Amino acid sequence: MDKTKLLDRVAKNGEERLTLARVLDRLEQAQSRNIPTATDFLSPQEQTSAEMLLNLAGVGGTEYVTMGGYEGAERKMILFLPDWLDVQSAAEQSPLRCLRAKYRPEYDLSHRDILGSLMGMGITREKTGDILVGKESCDLIVLESVENFLLQSWDQAGRAKLSVSAIEMTDLAAPEETCEEVRDTVMSLRLDAVAATGFKMARGKASALIESGKVQVNWQDCTKPDRLLGEGDTVTARGLGKFKVAEVGGVTKKGRTSIVIKRYV
Questions:
Q1: 135: DSSP letter
Q2: Is residue 215 within 8 Å of 195, Cβ to Cβ?
Q3: Do 256 and 186 form a contact (C-beta atoms < 8 A)?
């Protein structure tokens, strides 16, 4: 299948088409020059679309890994590997770099403050990974192409003065993801039935939420309340957070299916 047909099948809009076209360009570069090549950072939704694209395209034996700087990272890049580099050694060729911006705690900077500061300097979102904001500092994963610029020029976010330095990836202040485990039974594994449990609402309200276009399954938009879920599926809703179907159990005597949901808080 040629590049145009691949993009026609996978891309949902013009912006995503450009992103996925760049993913294919990196793959072709790795194959033609036999060097490691990396994409920019991709959102979870873009990562899912890229996986679909690469599965359809076939990668001709070219291996690749996704990296975000730490386990559980949301924003990740894809690193395509030449035939002389295996997955176990891929980190040695990673273009990811980590920075720490320190500031006085009374400024209490937010994710928005940091992102706004970076964009004001001309740093586009695809050049930065997760932004890990703390009380007195913010850790940032970036591509090596912008590392030196930020080290030399990034000195302010909002009213806060910043002291920026490079840190090792092992020193990242990775967030501890907290979740609560919910056990329940549902009439079926339909999205609206499971979402009612996951978001603590009536099934009718969950169905309306899905049809309104505010829900994603595995980072892909879904407007069908009757979409069947399976173990491992992640459901997100704007303004409500996300949950994961951690376990699907057996059927009770009343014909209901037991499930275990991890609701992230």
A1: S
A2: yes
A3: yes
Number of neighbours of residue 36 by Cβ within 10 angstroms: 21
Residue-wise pLDDT for 104-152, tens only, equals 999 999 999 999 999 999 999 999 999 999 999 999 999 999 999 999 9
Phi, psi of 105 (to 5 degrees): -60, -25
Q: Which residues contact 245 (CB under 8 A, 6 or more apart)?
A: 194, 229, 230, 231, 232, 233, 234, 235, 259, 260, 261
* Residue in the block written with tokens 């730490």: 70
Which domains does the chain possess? 3-92 (3.30.1370.160), 96-171 (3.30.70.330), 179-264 (3.10.290.10)
DSSP code for 68? -
| CA proximity to 249, closest of 232, 264, 229, 231 | 231
**Shortest CA distance to 62 belongs to which of 94, 16, 29?**
29
Task: Tokens for 18, please give them.
Answer: 């450009």
SS3 22: helix
Please name which of 124, 122, 241, 85 lies closest in space to residue 178, comparing C-alpha atoms: 241
pLDDT in tens, 147-206: 999 999 999 999 999 999 999 999 999 887 788 999 999 999 999 999 999 999 999 999
Distance (Å, rounded) from C-alpha 201 to C-alpha 5?
A: 41
